[in-house]
Amino acid sequence: MTGWLSYTLSRSQRQFAAINRGEWFSAIQDRIHDISIVGIYQLSKRVSLSATWVYWTGNAVTFPTGQYTIGGEVFNYFGDRNANRLPDYHRLDVGLTIEGKKYKQGNDPVTGKLTTVPKRIQSSWNFSVYNAYGRQNAFSVDFQPSEAAPTQSEAVRLALFRWVPSVTWNYEI
User: Where are the domains of the chain?
Assistant: First the structure.
Protein backbone atom coordinates (compact mmCIF):
# COMPACT_ATOMS: atom_id res chain seq x y z
CA MET A 1 0.00 0.00 0.00
CA THR A 2 1.36 3.42 -0.94
CA GLY A 3 -0.16 6.85 -1.06
CA TRP A 4 0.01 10.40 0.14
CA LEU A 5 -1.96 13.14 1.83
CA SER A 6 -1.79 16.85 1.05
CA TYR A 7 -3.41 19.87 2.67
CA THR A 8 -3.19 23.48 1.59
CA LEU A 9 -4.42 26.46 3.59
CA SER A 10 -4.39 29.61 1.48
CA ARG A 11 -6.10 32.89 0.62
CA SER A 12 -6.20 34.73 -2.69
CA GLN A 13 -7.58 38.24 -2.62
CA ARG A 14 -7.75 41.13 -5.08
CA GLN A 15 -8.19 44.88 -4.84
CA PHE A 16 -9.19 47.37 -7.54
CA ALA A 17 -10.27 50.96 -7.02
CA ALA A 18 -13.30 50.58 -9.34
CA ILE A 19 -14.57 47.28 -7.87
CA ASN A 20 -16.16 46.68 -4.45
CA ARG A 21 -15.64 50.33 -3.40
CA GLY A 22 -11.88 49.76 -3.51
CA GLU A 23 -12.04 47.16 -0.72
CA TRP A 24 -10.26 43.79 -0.81
CA PHE A 25 -12.35 40.83 -1.99
CA SER A 26 -11.79 37.09 -2.49
CA ALA A 27 -10.55 36.17 -5.95
CA ILE A 28 -12.51 33.47 -7.77
CA GLN A 29 -9.48 31.16 -7.28
CA ASP A 30 -9.62 31.63 -3.49
CA ARG A 31 -9.68 28.12 -2.00
CA ILE A 32 -9.14 28.34 1.71
CA HIS A 33 -8.91 24.57 2.29
CA ASP A 34 -7.71 22.04 -0.29
CA ILE A 35 -7.24 18.38 0.72
CA SER A 36 -6.21 15.35 -1.36
CA ILE A 37 -5.81 11.77 -0.16
CA VAL A 38 -4.39 9.17 -2.56
CA GLY A 39 -4.01 5.44 -1.97
CA ILE A 40 -2.63 2.73 -4.27
CA TYR A 41 -2.82 -0.93 -3.34
CA GLN A 42 -0.79 -3.46 -5.34
CA LEU A 43 -2.93 -6.62 -5.48
CA SER A 44 -0.31 -8.54 -7.48
CA LYS A 45 2.67 -7.82 -9.75
CA ARG A 46 0.31 -6.81 -12.54
CA VAL A 47 -2.88 -5.56 -10.81
CA SER A 48 -3.34 -2.46 -8.66
CA LEU A 49 -6.27 -0.57 -7.14
CA SER A 50 -6.23 3.18 -6.63
CA ALA A 51 -8.45 5.74 -4.92
CA THR A 52 -8.24 9.52 -4.75
CA TRP A 53 -10.45 11.67 -2.54
CA VAL A 54 -10.41 15.44 -2.99
CA TYR A 55 -12.08 18.21 -1.00
CA TRP A 56 -11.93 21.96 -1.33
CA THR A 57 -13.75 25.00 -0.06
CA GLY A 58 -16.40 26.23 -2.49
CA ASN A 59 -15.37 28.89 -4.98
CA ALA A 60 -16.01 32.56 -4.21
CA VAL A 61 -19.05 33.94 -6.07
CA THR A 62 -21.30 36.98 -6.06
CA PHE A 63 -24.97 36.27 -5.34
CA PRO A 64 -27.76 38.83 -5.71
CA THR A 65 -28.83 40.51 -2.48
CA GLY A 66 -32.06 42.01 -3.75
CA GLN A 67 -34.22 42.89 -6.75
CA TYR A 68 -35.67 45.97 -8.39
CA THR A 69 -38.18 46.52 -11.18
CA ILE A 70 -37.89 48.90 -14.12
CA GLY A 71 -40.69 49.07 -16.64
CA GLY A 72 -42.18 45.82 -15.38
CA GLU A 73 -38.89 43.91 -15.81
CA VAL A 74 -37.19 42.44 -12.72
CA PHE A 75 -33.41 42.91 -12.26
CA ASN A 76 -31.09 41.54 -9.59
CA TYR A 77 -29.11 43.82 -7.30
CA PHE A 78 -25.65 42.51 -6.44
CA GLY A 79 -23.79 43.33 -3.22
CA ASP A 80 -20.09 42.94 -2.44
CA ARG A 81 -17.90 41.15 -5.00
CA ASN A 82 -17.36 37.41 -4.26
CA ALA A 83 -18.85 37.74 -0.76
CA ASN A 84 -20.54 34.33 -1.07
CA ARG A 85 -19.32 30.77 -1.69
CA LEU A 86 -20.53 27.80 -3.65
CA PRO A 87 -21.03 24.68 -1.51
CA ASP A 88 -17.84 22.79 -0.63
CA TYR A 89 -16.64 20.37 -3.31
CA HIS A 90 -15.61 16.75 -2.79
CA ARG A 91 -15.46 13.53 -4.78
CA LEU A 92 -13.90 10.06 -4.81
CA ASP A 93 -12.18 8.62 -7.90
CA VAL A 94 -11.39 4.89 -8.04
CA GLY A 95 -9.44 2.80 -10.52
CA LEU A 96 -8.17 -0.65 -11.38
CA THR A 97 -4.99 -1.04 -13.48
CA ILE A 98 -3.94 -4.29 -15.12
CA GLU A 99 -0.39 -4.38 -16.50
CA GLY A 100 0.30 -6.49 -19.58
CA LYS A 101 2.97 -9.16 -19.52
CA LYS A 102 6.43 -7.61 -19.81
CA TYR A 103 8.18 -10.69 -21.17
CA LYS A 104 7.44 -13.41 -23.68
CA GLN A 105 8.96 -16.74 -24.60
CA GLY A 106 11.16 -16.57 -27.67
CA ASN A 107 14.20 -18.11 -29.30
CA ASP A 108 17.58 -16.57 -28.63
CA PRO A 109 18.83 -15.30 -32.03
CA VAL A 110 22.40 -16.56 -31.35
CA THR A 111 21.85 -19.96 -29.69
CA GLY A 112 18.34 -20.71 -30.95
CA LYS A 113 17.37 -21.84 -27.42
CA LEU A 114 13.99 -20.96 -25.92
CA THR A 115 14.39 -18.00 -23.55
CA THR A 116 12.46 -15.12 -21.98
CA VAL A 117 12.74 -11.82 -23.86
CA PRO A 118 11.18 -8.41 -23.22
CA LYS A 119 8.05 -7.71 -25.24
CA ARG A 120 8.35 -4.94 -27.82
CA ILE A 121 5.17 -3.26 -26.66
CA GLN A 122 4.50 -2.75 -22.94
CA SER A 123 0.85 -2.02 -22.20
CA SER A 124 -1.74 -1.67 -19.45
CA TRP A 125 -5.49 -1.33 -19.08
CA ASN A 126 -7.10 1.11 -16.64
CA PHE A 127 -10.76 0.98 -15.59
CA SER A 128 -11.84 3.94 -13.49
CA VAL A 129 -14.77 5.97 -12.21
CA TYR A 130 -14.51 9.72 -11.64
CA ASN A 131 -16.83 10.84 -8.80
CA ALA A 132 -17.61 7.28 -7.73
CA TYR A 133 -20.23 8.22 -5.12
CA GLY A 134 -22.04 10.49 -7.57
CA ARG A 135 -21.94 13.74 -5.61
CA GLN A 136 -23.57 16.57 -7.53
CA ASN A 137 -20.99 19.27 -6.87
CA ALA A 138 -22.08 22.79 -7.76
CA PHE A 139 -20.43 24.08 -10.94
CA SER A 140 -22.47 27.27 -10.75
CA VAL A 141 -25.57 28.73 -9.11
CA ASP A 142 -28.01 30.79 -11.15
CA PHE A 143 -30.93 32.84 -9.85
CA GLN A 144 -34.25 32.57 -11.67
CA PRO A 145 -37.75 33.86 -10.97
CA SER A 146 -39.61 31.44 -8.71
CA GLU A 147 -42.52 29.60 -10.36
CA ALA A 148 -44.50 29.82 -7.11
CA ALA A 149 -43.80 33.54 -6.57
CA PRO A 150 -42.59 35.27 -9.81
CA THR A 151 -41.49 38.41 -7.92
CA GLN A 152 -39.00 36.31 -5.92
CA SER A 153 -35.86 34.51 -7.07
CA GLU A 154 -34.75 30.98 -6.37
CA ALA A 155 -31.26 29.55 -6.56
CA VAL A 156 -30.73 26.83 -9.17
CA ARG A 157 -27.56 24.78 -8.89
CA LEU A 158 -25.87 23.39 -12.02
CA ALA A 159 -23.85 20.22 -11.41
CA LEU A 160 -21.65 18.49 -13.97
CA PHE A 161 -20.16 14.99 -14.21
CA ARG A 162 -22.12 12.99 -11.68
CA TRP A 163 -20.31 9.74 -12.65
CA VAL A 164 -17.72 9.40 -15.37
CA PRO A 165 -16.58 5.86 -16.10
CA SER A 166 -13.56 5.39 -18.35
CA VAL A 167 -11.47 2.65 -19.92
CA THR A 168 -7.93 3.42 -21.06
CA TRP A 169 -5.32 1.37 -22.88
CA ASN A 170 -1.75 2.67 -22.44
CA TYR A 171 1.22 1.38 -24.37
CA GLU A 172 4.92 1.99 -24.85
CA ILE A 173 6.97 0.88 -27.80
Answer: 2-172
pLDDT of residue 117 exceeding 70, the answer is no
Strands (E), the chain: 2-9, 13-14, 25-26, 33-42, 47-56, 60-61, 64-70, 73-78, 84-85, 89-99, 103-107, 114-118, 122-130, 138-145, 153-159, 164-172
C-alpha–C-alpha distance, residues 57 and 17, integer Å: 27
Please enumerate in sequence order all residues whose Cβ is within 8 A of that of 142, keeping only pairs 6 or more positions apart, or say none. Answer: 155, 156, 158
pLDDT in tens, 51-75: 999 999 999 999 988 888 888 887 8
What's 20's DSSP letter? Answer: G
Q: Minimal CA–CA distance to 86: which of 66, 67, 62?
A: 62
Q: What is the 3-state secondary structure (H, E, C) of 55-84?
A: EECCCEECCEEEEEEECCEEEEEECCCCCE
Nearest of 138, 129, 132, 169 to residue 58 by alpha carbon: 138
Output the pLDDT for position 11: 93
Task: Find the distance separating the first CA and the last CA of the chain, reported in whole Å.
Answer: 29
Contact 84, 59 (CB under 8 A): no
